Protein backbone atom coordinates (compact mmCIF):
# COMPACT_ATOMS: atom_id res chain seq x y z
CA UNK A 1 0.00 0.00 0.00
CA UNK A 2 0.99 3.63 -0.36
CA UNK A 3 0.97 5.44 2.96
CA UNK A 4 1.38 8.90 4.45
CA UNK A 5 2.47 9.11 8.10
CA UNK A 6 1.85 12.12 10.32
CA UNK A 7 3.50 12.21 13.73
CA UNK A 8 5.45 14.99 15.41
CA UNK A 9 7.99 12.69 17.07
CA UNK A 10 10.71 12.24 14.48
CA UNK A 11 12.10 9.20 16.24
CA UNK A 12 8.83 7.33 16.14
CA UNK A 13 8.01 8.45 12.63
CA UNK A 14 11.30 7.10 11.36
CA UNK A 15 10.68 3.82 13.16
CA UNK A 16 7.25 3.54 11.59
CA UNK A 17 8.57 4.34 8.13
CA UNK A 18 11.14 1.57 8.44
CA UNK A 19 8.55 -0.86 9.75
CA UNK A 20 6.17 -0.12 6.88
CA UNK A 21 8.98 -0.61 4.39
CA UNK A 22 9.86 -3.93 5.97
CA UNK A 23 6.21 -4.89 5.63
CA UNK A 24 6.39 -4.07 1.94
CA UNK A 25 4.36 -0.86 2.06
CA UNK A 26 5.51 2.36 0.49
CA UNK A 27 5.61 5.52 2.61
CA UNK A 28 5.18 8.33 0.09
CA UNK A 29 5.41 11.12 2.68
CA UNK A 30 5.94 11.55 6.39
CA UNK A 31 5.04 14.83 8.07
CA UNK A 32 5.02 16.41 11.52
CA UNK A 33 1.82 18.44 11.72
CA UNK A 34 -1.76 18.61 10.46
CA UNK A 35 -1.35 21.43 7.97
CA UNK A 36 1.58 19.79 6.23
CA UNK A 37 -0.38 16.55 6.19
CA UNK A 38 -3.34 18.12 4.39
CA UNK A 39 -0.92 19.78 1.96
CA UNK A 40 0.79 16.47 1.24
CA UNK A 41 -2.48 14.60 0.71
CA UNK A 42 -3.71 17.39 -1.56
CA UNK A 43 -0.51 17.26 -3.58
CA UNK A 44 -0.73 13.50 -4.19
CA UNK A 45 -4.47 13.51 -4.76
CA UNK A 46 -4.20 16.31 -7.30
CA UNK A 47 -1.48 14.38 -9.09
CA UNK A 48 -3.93 11.50 -9.36
CA UNK A 49 -1.92 9.31 -6.97
CA UNK A 50 -3.66 9.57 -3.61
CA UNK A 51 -2.31 7.45 -0.75
CA UNK A 52 -4.26 4.33 0.22
CA UNK A 53 -4.11 5.04 3.92
CA UNK A 54 -3.08 8.00 6.05
CA UNK A 55 -1.80 7.29 9.57
CA UNK A 56 -2.18 10.31 11.81
CA UNK A 57 -1.32 11.09 15.43
CA UNK A 58 -4.00 13.05 17.29
CA UNK A 59 -1.66 15.29 19.25
CA UNK A 60 0.54 17.39 17.01
CA UNK A 61 1.92 20.95 16.98
CA UNK A 62 1.12 23.73 17.44
CA UNK A 63 -1.36 23.16 20.29
CA UNK A 64 -0.83 19.45 20.97
CA UNK A 65 -4.54 18.88 21.45
CA UNK A 66 -6.48 17.48 18.51
CA UNK A 67 -4.81 18.80 15.35
CA UNK A 68 -4.37 15.31 13.97
CA UNK A 69 -7.98 14.46 14.53
CA UNK A 70 -9.19 17.55 12.76
CA UNK A 71 -6.86 16.82 9.87
CA UNK A 72 -8.26 13.26 9.78
CA UNK A 73 -11.84 14.51 9.62
CA UNK A 74 -10.89 16.94 6.85
CA UNK A 75 -9.34 14.12 4.84
CA UNK A 76 -12.40 11.93 5.36
CA UNK A 77 -14.59 14.73 4.13
CA UNK A 78 -12.59 15.70 1.06
CA UNK A 79 -11.24 12.32 -0.02
CA UNK A 80 -13.65 9.64 1.24
CA UNK A 81 -11.70 6.94 -0.61
CA UNK A 82 -8.52 7.44 1.39
CA UNK A 83 -8.34 5.21 4.45
CA UNK A 84 -7.51 6.99 7.70
CA UNK A 85 -5.97 5.47 10.82
CA UNK A 86 -6.03 7.77 13.83
CA UNK A 87 -3.54 7.11 16.62
CA UNK A 88 -4.56 8.52 19.94
CA UNK A 89 -2.84 8.87 23.27
CA UNK A 90 -5.90 8.01 25.31
CA UNK A 91 -9.26 6.50 24.68
CA UNK A 92 -11.30 9.63 24.17
CA UNK A 93 -14.78 8.30 24.32
CA UNK A 94 -16.35 11.39 22.81
CA UNK A 95 -14.05 11.19 19.80
CA UNK A 96 -14.43 7.46 19.47
CA UNK A 97 -18.19 7.68 19.57
CA UNK A 98 -18.27 10.53 17.08
CA UNK A 99 -15.94 8.70 14.73
CA UNK A 100 -17.63 5.33 15.01
CA UNK A 101 -21.17 6.56 14.62
CA UNK A 102 -20.22 8.52 11.56
CA UNK A 103 -20.56 5.06 10.00
CA UNK A 104 -17.49 5.34 7.83
CA UNK A 105 -15.59 2.55 6.19
CA UNK A 106 -11.89 2.50 5.63
CA UNK A 107 -11.35 4.05 8.97
CA UNK A 108 -9.54 3.18 12.20
CA UNK A 109 -9.02 4.53 15.70
CA UNK A 110 -6.22 2.94 17.68
CA UNK A 111 -4.33 3.72 20.83
CA UNK A 112 -0.90 4.89 19.89
CA UNK A 113 0.79 2.20 21.95
CA UNK A 114 -0.62 -0.41 19.55
CA UNK A 115 2.15 0.59 17.18
CA UNK A 116 4.43 -1.46 19.42
CA UNK A 117 2.41 -4.58 18.69
CA UNK A 118 3.45 -4.69 15.13
CA UNK A 119 1.23 -7.62 14.13
CA UNK A 120 -1.94 -5.93 15.36
CA UNK A 121 -0.92 -2.61 13.90
CA UNK A 122 -0.10 -4.03 10.50
CA UNK A 123 -3.28 -6.06 10.46
CA UNK A 124 -5.38 -3.02 11.32
CA UNK A 125 -3.70 -1.09 8.51
CA UNK A 126 -4.48 -3.89 6.07
CA UNK A 127 -8.12 -3.94 7.12
CA UNK A 128 -8.44 -0.21 6.67
CA UNK A 129 -6.68 -0.38 3.32
CA UNK A 130 -9.24 -2.97 2.24
CA UNK A 131 -12.09 -0.64 3.18
CA UNK A 132 -12.69 -2.23 6.57
CA UNK A 133 -12.54 -0.67 10.03
CA UNK A 134 -10.25 -1.02 13.01
CA UNK A 135 -11.26 0.05 16.48
CA UNK A 136 -8.94 -0.31 19.39
CA UNK A 137 -9.79 -3.14 21.80
CA UNK A 138 -9.66 -0.60 24.63
CA UNK A 139 -12.17 1.60 22.87
CA UNK A 140 -14.43 -1.37 22.35
CA UNK A 141 -13.99 -2.49 25.94
CA UNK A 142 -15.04 0.93 27.15
CA UNK A 143 -18.00 0.96 24.82
CA UNK A 144 -19.01 -2.47 26.07
CA UNK A 145 -18.64 -1.36 29.68
CA UNK A 146 -20.52 1.87 29.31
CA UNK A 147 -23.21 0.92 26.90
CA UNK A 148 -26.77 1.41 28.02
CA UNK A 149 -27.77 -1.91 26.49
CA UNK A 150 -26.37 -3.92 29.38
CA UNK A 151 -29.46 -6.06 29.57
CA UNK A 152 -29.22 -7.81 26.19
CA UNK A 153 -25.44 -8.05 26.64
CA UNK A 154 -25.87 -10.01 29.85
CA UNK A 155 -27.68 -12.71 27.87
CA UNK A 156 -24.54 -13.45 25.84
CA UNK A 157 -22.28 -16.38 26.62
CA UNK A 158 -18.63 -15.55 27.45
CA UNK A 159 -17.57 -16.82 24.03
CA UNK A 160 -20.20 -14.70 22.31
CA UNK A 161 -18.95 -11.66 24.22
CA UNK A 162 -15.41 -12.32 22.98
CA UNK A 163 -16.66 -12.62 19.44
CA UNK A 164 -18.73 -9.45 19.80
CA UNK A 165 -15.72 -7.48 20.99
CA UNK A 166 -13.57 -8.68 18.10
CA UNK A 167 -16.35 -7.91 15.62
CA UNK A 168 -16.67 -4.43 17.00
CA UNK A 169 -12.94 -3.94 16.54
CA UNK A 170 -13.48 -4.69 12.87
CA UNK A 171 -12.07 -8.20 12.52
CA UNK A 172 -13.31 -10.58 9.87
CA UNK A 173 -14.68 -14.01 10.75
CA UNK A 174 -11.41 -15.48 9.62
CA UNK A 175 -9.49 -13.08 11.84
CA UNK A 176 -11.71 -13.87 14.79
CA UNK A 177 -11.27 -17.59 14.24
CA UNK A 178 -7.50 -17.12 14.20
CA UNK A 179 -7.52 -15.05 17.37
CA UNK A 180 -9.74 -17.37 19.37
CA UNK A 181 -8.34 -20.61 17.94
CA UNK A 182 -11.73 -21.89 16.84
CA UNK A 183 -13.06 -22.86 13.43
CA UNK A 184 -14.63 -20.31 11.14
CA UNK A 185 -17.96 -22.09 11.22
CA UNK A 186 -17.98 -21.88 15.01
CA UNK A 187 -17.40 -18.14 14.68
CA UNK A 188 -20.27 -17.83 12.23
CA UNK A 189 -22.58 -19.67 14.63
CA UNK A 190 -21.60 -17.34 17.47
CA UNK A 191 -22.03 -14.29 15.28
CA UNK A 192 -25.53 -15.27 14.20
CA UNK A 193 -26.52 -16.09 17.76
CA UNK A 194 -25.32 -12.84 19.22
CA UNK A 195 -26.75 -10.67 16.45
CA UNK A 196 -30.01 -12.39 17.15
CA UNK A 197 -29.84 -11.77 20.89
CA UNK A 198 -28.98 -8.10 20.42
CA UNK A 199 -31.60 -7.65 17.74
CA UNK A 200 -29.12 -6.32 15.18
CA UNK A 201 -29.96 -7.04 11.56
CA UNK A 202 -27.15 -8.97 9.84
CA UNK A 203 -25.25 -6.57 7.59
CA UNK A 204 -23.44 -7.51 4.40
CA UNK A 205 -19.67 -6.97 4.55
CA UNK A 206 -17.48 -7.02 7.61
CA UNK A 207 -17.00 -3.32 8.04
CA UNK A 208 -20.74 -2.63 7.79
CA UNK A 209 -21.27 -5.36 10.33
CA UNK A 210 -18.77 -3.99 12.83
CA UNK A 211 -20.13 -0.48 12.33
CA UNK A 212 -23.61 -1.71 13.07
CA UNK A 213 -22.33 -3.23 16.30
CA UNK A 214 -20.31 -0.17 17.25
CA UNK A 215 -23.30 2.03 16.59
CA UNK A 216 -25.40 -0.27 18.72
CA UNK A 217 -22.89 0.00 21.55
CA UNK A 218 -22.57 3.76 21.39
CA UNK A 219 -26.27 4.47 21.44
CA UNK B 1 33.84 61.88 58.71
CA UNK B 2 31.27 59.83 56.86
CA UNK B 3 28.66 60.60 59.47
CA UNK B 4 29.45 64.23 59.08
CA UNK B 5 28.94 63.90 55.33
CA UNK B 6 25.67 62.12 55.91
CA UNK B 7 24.44 64.83 58.22
CA UNK B 8 25.33 67.52 55.72
CA UNK B 9 23.68 65.67 52.90
CA UNK B 10 20.57 65.04 54.94
CA UNK B 11 20.35 68.68 55.94
CA UNK B 12 20.69 69.68 52.32
CA UNK B 13 17.97 67.29 51.14
CA UNK B 14 15.61 68.35 53.92
CA UNK B 15 16.22 71.97 53.09
CA UNK B 16 15.62 71.36 49.40
CA UNK B 17 12.47 69.42 50.23
CA UNK B 18 11.06 72.23 52.34
CA UNK B 19 11.99 74.77 49.68
CA UNK B 20 10.23 72.77 46.96
CA UNK B 21 7.31 72.25 49.31
CA UNK B 22 6.93 76.00 49.78
CA UNK B 23 7.01 76.51 46.01
CA UNK B 24 4.41 73.78 45.52
CA UNK B 25 2.26 75.55 48.12
CA UNK B 26 1.91 78.44 45.70
CA UNK B 27 0.86 76.07 42.99
CA UNK B 28 -1.67 74.41 45.28
CA UNK B 29 -3.02 77.72 46.42
CA UNK B 30 -3.42 78.83 42.83
CA UNK B 31 -5.12 75.55 42.00
CA UNK B 32 -7.61 76.04 44.83
CA UNK B 33 -8.34 79.57 43.68
CA UNK B 34 -8.92 78.43 40.11
CA UNK B 35 -10.86 75.46 41.45
CA UNK B 36 -13.20 77.72 43.33
CA UNK B 37 -14.03 79.32 39.98
CA UNK B 38 -15.44 75.93 39.14
CA UNK B 39 -18.20 76.73 41.61
CA UNK B 40 -19.63 79.19 39.06
CA UNK B 41 -20.79 76.57 36.54
CA UNK B 42 -22.12 74.51 39.43
CA UNK B 43 -24.28 77.38 40.58
CA UNK B 44 -25.35 77.99 37.00
CA UNK B 45 -25.98 74.36 36.11
CA UNK B 46 -26.28 72.14 39.19
CA UNK B 47 -26.18 69.02 37.02
CA UNK B 48 -22.57 69.69 36.08
CA UNK B 49 -21.60 69.44 39.75
CA UNK B 50 -20.52 65.82 39.60
CA UNK B 51 -18.32 66.37 36.57
CA UNK B 52 -16.65 69.54 37.84
CA UNK B 53 -15.91 67.99 41.22
CA UNK B 54 -14.48 64.88 39.60
CA UNK B 55 -12.29 66.98 37.34
CA UNK B 56 -11.01 69.06 40.25
CA UNK B 57 -10.21 65.88 42.15
CA UNK B 58 -8.37 64.46 39.17
CA UNK B 59 -6.21 67.58 38.92
CA UNK B 60 -5.59 67.41 42.66
CA UNK B 61 -4.25 63.90 42.16
CA UNK B 62 -1.55 65.24 39.83
CA UNK B 63 -0.45 67.66 42.54
CA UNK B 64 -0.59 64.94 45.18
CA UNK B 65 1.61 62.75 43.00
CA UNK B 66 4.15 65.59 42.77
CA UNK B 67 4.04 65.95 46.53
CA UNK B 68 4.42 62.22 46.94
CA UNK B 69 7.53 62.26 44.76
CA UNK B 70 8.97 65.18 46.72
CA UNK B 71 8.29 63.53 50.07
CA UNK B 72 9.81 60.28 48.87
CA UNK B 73 12.90 61.93 47.43
CA UNK B 74 13.69 64.46 50.14
CA UNK B 75 11.95 63.33 53.30
CA UNK B 76 12.04 59.54 52.91
CA UNK B 77 8.31 59.10 53.20
CA UNK B 78 7.56 55.82 51.41
CA UNK B 79 4.32 54.54 52.88
CA UNK B 80 1.91 56.73 50.93
CA UNK B 81 -0.83 55.51 48.65
CA UNK B 82 -2.83 54.16 47.08
CA UNK B 83 -5.37 56.96 47.56
CA UNK B 84 -8.51 58.14 45.82
CA UNK B 85 -8.79 61.40 43.85
CA UNK B 86 -11.02 62.70 46.64
CA UNK B 87 -8.37 62.04 49.27
CA UNK B 88 -5.83 63.79 47.06
CA UNK B 89 -8.08 66.84 46.91
CA UNK B 90 -8.59 66.91 50.67
CA UNK B 91 -4.85 66.66 51.13
CA UNK B 92 -4.02 69.41 48.65
CA UNK B 93 -6.59 71.80 50.13
CA UNK B 94 -5.19 71.34 53.64
CA UNK B 95 -1.53 71.07 52.86
CA UNK B 96 -0.77 74.47 51.37
CA UNK B 97 -0.60 76.39 54.70
CA UNK B 98 2.20 74.08 55.80
CA UNK B 99 4.03 74.82 52.59
CA UNK B 100 3.54 78.50 53.18
CA UNK B 101 4.86 78.13 56.72
CA UNK B 102 7.89 76.35 55.34
CA UNK B 103 8.43 79.28 52.96
CA UNK B 104 8.24 81.71 55.87
CA UNK B 105 10.77 79.76 57.93
CA UNK B 106 13.12 79.65 54.96
CA UNK B 107 12.76 83.40 54.49
CA UNK B 108 13.68 84.01 58.12
CA UNK B 109 16.67 81.72 57.71
CA UNK B 110 17.80 83.55 54.61
CA UNK B 111 17.47 86.89 56.34
CA UNK B 112 19.39 85.68 59.40
CA UNK B 113 22.17 84.24 57.25
CA UNK B 114 22.45 87.48 55.26
CA UNK B 115 22.73 89.55 58.40
CA UNK B 116 25.32 87.19 59.87
CA UNK B 117 27.33 87.07 56.65
CA UNK B 118 27.43 90.84 56.24
CA UNK B 119 28.39 91.29 59.88
CA UNK B 120 31.19 88.78 59.75
CA UNK B 121 32.52 90.16 56.47
CA UNK B 122 32.49 93.67 57.96
CA UNK B 123 34.27 92.39 61.05
CA UNK B 124 36.93 90.63 58.96
CA UNK B 125 37.39 93.50 56.55
CA UNK B 126 37.34 96.01 59.39
CA UNK B 127 34.76 97.98 57.50
CA UNK B 128 31.53 99.48 58.61
CA UNK B 129 28.33 97.56 58.76
CA UNK B 130 25.90 99.18 56.41
CA UNK B 131 23.31 96.54 55.75
CA UNK B 132 21.01 97.38 58.62
CA UNK B 133 21.85 100.97 59.34
CA UNK B 134 23.07 103.42 56.78
CA UNK B 135 25.56 105.02 59.08
CA UNK B 136 26.29 101.82 60.93
CA UNK B 137 29.13 101.78 63.33
CA UNK B 138 32.28 99.73 63.34
CA UNK B 139 31.84 95.97 63.84
CA UNK B 140 34.27 95.17 66.59
CA UNK B 141 35.12 91.79 68.08
CA UNK B 142 33.03 92.72 71.08
CA UNK B 143 29.98 93.29 68.89
CA UNK B 144 30.42 89.89 67.28
CA UNK B 145 30.75 88.12 70.62
CA UNK B 146 27.67 89.85 72.01
CA UNK B 147 25.57 89.15 68.95
CA UNK B 148 26.80 85.55 68.44
CA UNK B 149 24.83 84.02 71.31
CA UNK B 150 21.34 85.29 70.39
CA UNK B 151 22.27 84.72 66.74
CA UNK B 152 23.09 81.05 67.33
CA UNK B 153 19.92 80.67 69.39
CA UNK B 154 17.85 82.11 66.57
CA UNK B 155 19.63 79.85 64.07
CA UNK B 156 18.86 76.83 66.26
CA UNK B 157 15.19 77.78 66.52
CA UNK B 158 15.11 78.28 62.79
CA UNK B 159 16.61 74.87 62.08
CA UNK B 160 14.09 73.32 64.48
CA UNK B 161 11.40 75.15 62.57
CA UNK B 162 12.57 73.63 59.30
CA UNK B 163 12.69 70.15 60.80
CA UNK B 164 9.25 70.75 62.30
CA UNK B 165 7.81 71.84 58.97
CA UNK B 166 9.25 68.75 57.30
CA UNK B 167 7.74 66.53 60.00
CA UNK B 168 4.41 68.29 59.76
CA UNK B 169 4.51 67.88 56.00
CA UNK B 170 5.08 64.15 56.33
CA UNK B 171 2.43 63.84 59.01
CA UNK B 172 -0.33 65.53 57.02
CA UNK B 173 0.58 63.54 53.94
CA UNK B 174 0.28 60.32 55.95
CA UNK B 175 -2.96 61.50 57.48
CA UNK B 176 -4.62 61.94 54.10
CA UNK B 177 -2.68 59.80 51.67
CA UNK B 178 -1.51 56.78 53.63
CA UNK B 179 -3.85 53.83 53.61
CA UNK B 180 -5.71 53.17 56.82
CA UNK B 181 -5.25 49.90 58.69
CA UNK B 182 -8.44 48.66 57.04
CA UNK B 183 -7.14 49.57 53.60
CA UNK B 184 -3.90 47.78 54.31
CA UNK B 185 -5.80 44.68 55.38
CA UNK B 186 -8.10 44.84 52.39
CA UNK B 187 -5.14 45.18 50.08
CA UNK B 188 -3.38 42.28 51.75
CA UNK B 189 -6.47 40.12 51.34
CA UNK B 190 -6.71 40.93 47.65
CA UNK B 191 -2.98 40.27 47.23
CA UNK B 192 -3.37 36.91 48.91
CA UNK B 193 -6.41 36.04 46.85
CA UNK B 194 -4.50 36.91 43.73
CA UNK B 195 -1.45 34.96 44.74
CA UNK B 196 -3.60 31.99 45.66
CA UNK B 197 -5.15 32.08 42.21
CA UNK B 198 -1.66 32.30 40.79
CA UNK B 199 -0.55 29.32 42.83
CA UNK B 200 -3.40 27.26 41.46
CA UNK B 201 -2.51 28.44 37.98
CA UNK B 202 1.15 27.60 38.51
CA UNK B 203 0.32 24.13 39.75
CA UNK B 204 -1.88 23.54 36.73
CA UNK B 205 0.76 24.78 34.33
CA UNK B 206 3.32 22.57 35.99
CA UNK B 207 1.10 19.56 35.68
CA UNK B 208 0.42 20.28 32.06
CA UNK B 209 4.13 20.59 31.45
CA UNK B 210 4.88 17.34 33.24
CA UNK B 211 2.16 15.59 31.25
CA UNK B 212 3.65 16.92 28.05
CA UNK B 213 7.17 15.97 29.09
CA UNK B 214 6.03 12.45 29.82
CA UNK B 215 3.86 12.12 26.76
CA UNK B 216 5.93 13.85 24.11
CA UNK B 217 9.24 12.67 25.46
CA UNK B 218 9.38 9.53 27.50
CA UNK B 219 6.32 7.75 26.16
CA UNK B 220 7.23 8.33 22.53
CA UNK B 221 10.68 6.97 23.20
CA UNK B 222 9.23 3.89 24.79
CA UNK B 223 6.86 3.31 21.88
CA UNK B 224 9.75 3.72 19.46
CA UNK B 225 11.69 1.25 21.57
CA UNK B 226 8.85 -1.25 21.43
CA UNK B 227 8.71 -0.77 17.69
CA UNK B 228 12.41 -1.55 17.37
CA UNK B 229 12.04 -4.70 19.44
CA UNK B 230 8.99 -5.75 17.43
CA UNK B 231 10.92 -5.31 14.21
CA UNK B 232 13.85 -7.25 15.66
CA UNK B 233 11.53 -10.11 16.51
CA UNK B 234 10.07 -10.18 13.04
CA UNK B 235 13.36 -9.77 11.21
CA UNK B 236 14.29 -12.81 9.14
CA UNK B 237 17.92 -11.77 8.82
CA UNK B 238 19.86 -12.43 12.07
CA UNK B 239 22.33 -9.60 11.30
CA UNK B 240 19.49 -7.11 10.93
CA UNK B 241 17.85 -8.49 14.07
CA UNK B 242 21.03 -8.05 16.07
CA UNK B 243 21.40 -4.50 14.79
CA UNK B 244 17.81 -3.68 15.71
CA UNK B 245 18.34 -5.07 19.22
CA UNK B 246 21.44 -2.90 19.56
CA UNK B 247 19.44 0.15 18.50
CA UNK B 248 16.71 -0.82 20.94
CA UNK B 249 19.22 -1.02 23.74
CA UNK B 250 20.46 2.48 22.96
CA UNK B 251 16.90 3.72 22.74
CA UNK B 252 16.14 2.28 26.16
CA UNK B 253 19.14 4.10 27.65
CA UNK B 254 17.91 7.34 26.13
CA UNK B 255 14.42 6.74 27.48
CA UNK B 256 15.83 6.26 30.98
CA UNK B 257 17.88 9.44 30.66
CA UNK B 258 14.76 11.27 29.50
CA UNK B 259 12.81 9.98 32.42
CA UNK B 260 15.53 11.10 34.81
CA UNK B 261 15.44 14.58 33.30
CA UNK B 262 11.68 14.81 33.58
CA UNK B 263 11.79 13.70 37.20
CA UNK B 264 14.51 16.24 37.90
CA UNK B 265 12.39 18.99 36.39
CA UNK B 266 9.39 17.93 38.45
CA UNK B 267 11.38 18.23 41.65
CA UNK B 268 15.11 18.17 42.12
CA UNK B 269 15.29 15.84 45.11
CA UNK B 270 18.96 16.65 45.57
CA UNK B 271 17.75 20.03 46.77
CA UNK B 272 16.62 18.33 49.97
CA UNK B 273 19.90 16.79 51.00
CA UNK B 274 22.44 18.92 49.15
CA UNK B 275 20.92 22.35 49.49
CA UNK B 276 20.54 25.28 47.16
CA UNK B 277 24.23 26.06 46.70
CA UNK B 278 25.18 22.66 45.27
CA UNK B 279 22.09 22.37 43.11
CA UNK B 280 22.69 25.81 41.59
CA UNK B 281 26.30 24.90 41.04
CA UNK B 282 24.99 21.89 39.17
CA UNK B 283 22.65 24.06 37.09
CA UNK B 284 25.60 26.31 36.31
CA UNK B 285 27.67 23.32 35.22
CA UNK B 286 24.94 21.95 32.97
CA UNK B 287 24.34 25.28 31.30
CA UNK B 288 25.47 25.60 27.71
CA UNK B 289 26.44 29.23 28.38
CA UNK B 290 29.27 29.97 30.88
CA UNK B 291 27.84 30.92 34.27
CA UNK B 292 29.46 33.06 36.98
CA UNK B 293 27.97 32.17 40.33
CA UNK B 294 28.16 34.28 43.48
CA UNK B 295 26.59 32.63 46.47
CA UNK B 296 26.70 34.62 49.70
CA UNK B 297 24.29 32.81 51.98
CA UNK B 298 25.87 31.43 55.12
CA UNK B 299 23.00 29.22 56.24
CA UNK B 300 20.36 27.35 54.27
CA UNK B 301 17.08 29.16 53.68
CA UNK B 302 13.75 27.40 54.40
CA UNK B 303 12.81 24.65 51.95
CA UNK B 304 9.96 26.56 50.32
CA UNK B 305 12.25 29.51 49.62
CA UNK B 306 15.03 27.23 48.38
CA UNK B 307 12.66 25.56 45.95
CA UNK B 308 11.40 28.85 44.53
CA UNK B 309 14.92 30.24 44.27
CA UNK B 310 16.01 27.08 42.47
CA UNK B 311 13.17 27.25 39.96
CA UNK B 312 13.76 30.94 39.32
CA UNK B 313 17.43 30.30 38.59
CA UNK B 314 16.83 27.15 36.55
CA UNK B 315 14.16 28.83 34.44
CA UNK B 316 16.15 32.01 33.94
CA UNK B 317 19.23 30.04 32.88
CA UNK B 318 17.16 27.85 30.55
CA UNK B 319 15.54 30.93 29.01
CA UNK B 320 18.88 32.61 28.51
CA UNK B 321 20.30 29.50 26.89
CA UNK B 322 17.29 29.12 24.60
CA UNK B 323 16.53 32.65 23.51
CA UNK B 324 19.09 35.25 24.50
CA UNK B 325 22.24 34.35 22.61
CA UNK B 326 24.17 35.54 25.67
CA UNK B 327 27.90 34.95 26.20
CA UNK B 328 27.78 34.82 29.98
CA UNK B 329 25.20 34.52 32.71
CA UNK B 330 25.69 35.98 36.19
CA UNK B 331 23.89 34.40 39.12
CA UNK B 332 23.92 36.18 42.46
CA UNK B 333 22.34 34.76 45.58
CA UNK B 334 22.61 36.72 48.81
CA UNK B 335 20.78 38.72 51.45
CA UNK B 336 19.02 41.82 50.16
CA UNK B 337 20.55 43.75 53.09
CA UNK B 338 23.28 42.73 55.56
CA UNK B 339 20.88 42.26 58.46
CA UNK B 340 17.73 41.69 56.41
CA UNK B 341 15.67 38.52 56.42
CA UNK B 342 15.04 38.66 52.69
CA UNK B 343 16.97 36.66 50.14
CA UNK B 344 17.90 38.29 46.87
CA UNK B 345 18.35 36.29 43.70
CA UNK B 346 19.58 38.08 40.58
CA UNK B 347 20.18 36.38 37.25
CA UNK B 348 21.72 38.56 34.55
CA UNK B 349 22.58 37.64 30.99
CA UNK B 350 24.28 39.80 28.37
CA UNK B 351 22.04 38.55 25.58
CA UNK B 352 19.73 40.34 23.21
CA UNK B 353 16.99 41.11 25.77
CA UNK B 354 13.36 41.45 24.81
CA UNK B 355 12.21 38.69 27.18
CA UNK B 356 8.47 38.71 27.76
CA UNK B 357 7.67 38.84 31.50
CA UNK B 358 4.15 37.66 30.71
CA UNK B 359 5.39 34.66 28.76
CA UNK B 360 4.82 31.09 29.86
CA UNK B 361 8.06 30.51 31.72
CA UNK B 362 8.49 33.91 33.33
CA UNK B 363 4.79 34.26 34.07
CA UNK B 364 4.87 30.96 35.91
CA UNK B 365 7.88 32.14 37.89
CA UNK B 366 6.09 35.33 38.89
CA UNK B 367 3.27 33.19 40.22
CA UNK B 368 5.63 30.97 42.18
CA UNK B 369 7.37 33.97 43.70
CA UNK B 370 4.06 35.63 44.56
CA UNK B 371 3.04 32.43 46.28
CA UNK B 372 5.80 32.83 48.87
CA UNK B 373 5.18 36.58 49.15
CA UNK B 374 8.27 37.62 47.25
CA UNK B 375 8.79 40.28 44.62
CA UNK B 376 9.63 39.49 41.02
CA UNK B 377 11.08 41.87 38.43
CA UNK B 378 12.25 41.31 34.90
CA UNK B 379 14.13 43.98 33.00
CA UNK B 380 14.86 43.05 29.46
CA UNK B 381 15.21 46.00 27.10
CA UNK B 382 15.77 45.17 23.41
CA UNK B 383 19.52 44.72 23.03
CA UNK B 384 19.77 43.41 26.59
CA UNK B 385 20.92 42.82 29.21
CA UNK B 386 18.15 40.76 30.76
CA UNK B 387 17.95 40.97 34.54
CA UNK B 388 15.66 38.75 36.56
CA UNK B 389 15.54 40.00 40.14
CA UNK B 390 13.69 38.19 42.89
CA UNK B 391 13.42 38.95 46.58
CA UNK B 392 12.09 36.24 48.86
CA UNK B 393 11.14 36.70 52.51
CA UNK B 394 12.71 34.09 54.80
CA UNK B 395 10.04 33.51 57.37
TrEMBL record, chain A:
GO terms for molecular function: DNA binding. The keyword Iron does not apply. Keywords: DNA-binding, Phosphoprotein, Transcription, Transcription regulation. CDD domains: LuxR_C_like, REC_NarL-like. Residues 149-214 form the HTH luxR-type domain. GO terms for biological process: phosphorelay signal transduction system; regulation of DNA-templated transcription. Pfam families: GerE (PF00196), Response_reg (PF00072). Coiled coil: none annotated. The modification 4-aspartylphosphate is found at residue 57. The keyword Protein biosynthesis does not apply. Residues 2-127 form the Response regulatory domain. Gene3D superfamilies: 3.40.50.2300. InterPro entries: CheY-like_superfamily, NreC/VraR/RcsB-like_REC, Sig_transdc_resp-reg_receiver, Tscrpt_reg_LuxR_C, WalR-like. This is LuxR family two component transcriptional regulator.
From TrEMBL, chain B:
InterPro entries: HATPase_C_sf (IPR036890), HATPase_dom (IPR003594), Sensor_HK_TwoCompSys (IPR050482), Sig_transdc_His_kin_sub3_dim/P (IPR011712). SUPFAM superfamilies: ATPase domain of HSP90 chaperone/DNA topoisomerase II/histidine kinase. One of its GO terms (molecular function) is phosphorelay sensor kinase activity. Pfam families: HATPase_c, HisKA_3. The chain crosses the membrane at residues 20-44, 96-124, 144-166. Residues 206-270 form the Signal transduction histidine kinase subgroup 3 dimerisation and phosphoacceptor domain. It comes from the Bacteria. Its EC number is 2.7.13.3. Keywords: ATP-binding, Kinase, Membrane, Nucleotide-binding, Phosphoprotein, Transferase, Transmembrane, Transmembrane helix, Two-component regulatory system. It is an enzyme of class 2 (transferase). It catalyses: ATP + protein L-histidine = ADP + protein N-phospho-L-histidine. One of its GO terms (cellular component) is membrane. Residues 310-393 form the Histidine kinase/HSP90-like ATPase domain. PANTHER family: NITRATE/NITRITE SENSOR PROTEIN NARX-RELATED, NITRATE_NITRITE SENSOR PROTEIN NARQ. This is histidine kinase. The lineage of its organism: Bacteria, Bacillati, Actinomycetota, Actinomycetes, Propionibacteriales.
